[in-house]
Amino acid sequence: MLRRFHRLSDEAGLPRIRAHDLRHFAAPTMLSANVPLPMAGKTLRHSAVSVTT
């Protein structure tokens, strides 16, 4: 899956990023879209809501 992601990124001319960087993008994106904090934490598989904040 990661190879496919990198291949698609390369084909699109985007810089190569780590898969973990997507998590750092997803969290604030969900919160700015008013996804409830517990739901965002569960989606990111955080052990506690306090990790998400």
TrEMBL record:
InterPro entries: DNA_brk_join_enz, Integrase-like_cat_sf, Integrase_catalytic
Keywords attached to this entry: DNA recombination
Coiled-coil residues: none
Signal sequence interval, chain numbering: none
Organism superkingdom: Bacteria
Pfam families: Phage_integrase
Residue stretches making up the Tyr recombinase domain: 3-52
Protein name listed in UniProt: Tyrosine-type recombinase/integrase
Annotated source species: Actinokineospora xionganensis
Lineage of origin: Bacteria, Bacillati, Actinomycetota, Actinomycetes, Pseudonocardiales
